[in-house]
């Protein structure tokens, strides 16, 4: 694999991971959907993978990278904490700026509100796909295949249920099968853009690395807590959602240690 530059690897790896979003949404084209409980379980799985990826693939490497830049212990921790909060704040601000009907609060309006809720979910998924791509790109850019591969696999795995969730919710709003699948596929294509940027930044500017990694972790943590977990609990399948989250979390932890 030496013939590929880190930037090309970062792009291809994040493109492959992002494409699994479209793959996961394929069942809507055939109208054979898994039950709501199974979908909540698989979206819970996605939340678990993302949670583990935030810590093991973003926050810990961010601390390691920051420790190379400073002699004392407080500065790396402070930088990573600040960057996490900035990442969370950035997504919160984006949510704030959008005309917003919240998931759990806004039930009053009929169809318009429900359509808006679905689109907010889609926007949140799209937004968090960017830091996911960034993470994959940074992985390949800093550590080559060894660091990039577990991330690409883990991120790819959790994209499939996300793609399905997006397509199914659009189907529920009356979108055609093809359009629902197409929009779901588009949300995943943000990932190679993030991947290219991530691999590029780390290749050209090492001091930015801890900031970028921790910012991406913060953005993902916000989406997990604010959109994905509430979505899996909305229809009374908390047990399945939590089971999915546990499986996703330990699987990503295992992948990261085993392949990383
Ligand atoms: Zn995700």
Summarize the structure in short.
By secondary structure, this protein is mainly alpha-helical. The chain is built from 9 helices and no strands.
The small-molecule ligands in this entry are: zinc ion
Please tally the helical runs, counting DSSP H or I stretches of 4 or more residues: 9
Largest sheet: none
How do the SSEs run, as a string of H and E? HHHHHHHHH
The N- to C-terminal Cα distance equals 17 Å
Domain module tally: 1
The low-pLDDT segments are: 100-108
**Per the principal axes of the C-alpha atoms, what is the gross shape?**
globular
| Overall pLDDT confidence | 85
Structural class: mainly alpha
| Radius of gyration from CA coordinates | 18 Å
Strand content: under 5%
| Proportion in helices | over 70%
Number of strands: 0
Task: Break the fold down into its secondary structure elements and pairings.
Blueprint: H1 6-24, H2 27-30, H3 36-67, H4 74-97, H5 111-172, H6 177-188, H7 190-204, H8 209-233, H9 238-259
Helix pairs in contact: 1-5, 1-6, 1-7, 3-4, 3-5, 3-8, 3-9, 4-8, 5-6, 5-7, 5-8, 5-9
Q: How would you describe this structure to a colleague?
A:
It is a single chain. The protein contains nine helices and no strands. With about 260 residues, the chain is an all-alpha fold. It has one domain (about 5-260). α1 runs antiparallel to α6, α5 (about 110-170) packs across α8 (about 210-235) and α5 (about 110-170) crosses α9. The chain is globular, with a radius of gyration of 18 Å. The site of zinc ion has 6 residues, from α3 and α5.
